[in-house]
Write a structure and sequence with these properties.
By secondary structure, this protein is of the alpha/beta class. The chain folds into 2 domains: 152 residues, Periplasmic binding protein-like II (D-Maltodextrin-Binding Protein, domain 2, 3-Layer(aba) Sandwich); 91 residues, Periplasmic binding protein-like II (D-Maltodextrin-Binding Protein, domain 2, 3-Layer(aba) Sandwich), CATH 3.40.190.10. Helix 3 packs parallel to helix 4. The longest helix is centred in the first third of the chain and has 19 residues. The radius of gyration is 21 Å and the shape is globular. It holds the Pfam family Phosphonate-bd. This is ABC transporter, substrate-binding protein, putative.
Length: 271
């Protein structure tokens, strides 16, 4: 009888045990401190709903964040469309939670290629380009595609990965680079310091918050999603990340976005 019980136990499906603490991560648009400040109100809200602690883990670039998610060192991640596509190709045990709305209320955003305001014809005088990091949507993906449409090969121009969006803007303002690219909201924040837009992208799929199905219970995943989609206005008003609200995941947006990507870009994403 005892042997039978042991055999039966071995065939019981393994379930994920509920954790007392979850790890959340997002690559910074600014610095480490600003990342914590940007996401903490959102995490405090989720933590209250789950009645669990949520710790922020900081990674310097999207590639590292994706790898840590796959290694199960990250439970919840905030990703742009390119890192999300990279994750989808490498890992099946994720579950989309919500799309994060932008200021206009839509679950989409744009990238901006910009230059110093006194540059008369920036595309004909590109000396060097400041970009965020390889898997940033507004980094190589956007810049390569935008310049290709203008008949310019990005690989023929010196470029550097600066690390985050705000630093890209600051480097161009300081005259260390004569072209840069960031999310539109970061460009708008710094444009009055001497920047002008050169190329603006089409609408891109929104940033997304995803859960790791290998480390989180389905009950907690569902609770987070429902809590964000139905967040009360008084709670929404204190958020920074997510302050304009959340949308349900729409896979078609990302499928269509992926179809637009050049093979050279896809190779970089999936390598």
């Amino acid at each position: 009888m005892r042997r039978l019980l042991i055999i039966l136990f071995l065939f019981v499906p393994l379930t994920i045990l509920s954790k007392e603490q979850y790890i959340y991560s997002a690559v910074s648009l600014g610095n480490h401190e600003s990342t914590i400040a940007q996401h903490k109100p959102l995490l405090d809200y989720i933590s209250d709903r789950l009645n669990k602690k949520i710790k922020i883990a900081y990674y310097e670039n999207h590639r590292e964040l994706v790898e840590m998610f796959i290694k199960k060192d990250v439970d919840i991640a905030y990703l742009g469309p390119v890192p999300f596509i990279a994750l989808k190709r490498k890992y099946i045990n994720f579950e989309p939670l919500v799309l994060v709305k932008e200021k206009d209320g839509n679950s989409s955003y744009r990238c901006v290629l910009f230059a110093p305001i006194d540059e008369s014809d920036p595309l004909k005088k590109i000396k060097n380009i400041a970009m965020t990091n390889p898997l940033s949507t507004c980094g190589y993906t956007f810049v390569y595609s935008a310049l290709k449409k203008e008949g310019i090969d990005l690989e023929s121009i010196p470029y550097s990965y600066i690390g985050n969006h705000e630093e890209v803007a600051k480097k161009v303002i300081a005259g260390l680079y004569n072209v840069g690219a960031t999310k539109e909201d970061i460009f708008e924040k710094y444009k009055n310091l001497g920047l002008k837009s050169v190329i603006i992208s089409d609408e891109l799929p929104a940033f997304i918050i995803v859960a790791n199905k290998k480390t989180m219970t389905q009950n907690d995943i569902n609770l987070i999603r429902n809590s964000l989609l139905n967040i009360p206005k008084d709670k929404l008003s204190i958020l920074k990340t997510g302050k304009y609200g959340f949308d349900r995941y729409d896979e078609s947006k990302y499928i269509n976005f992926e179809k637009l990507l050049d093979n050279n870009i896809l190779k970089r994403i999936y390598e």
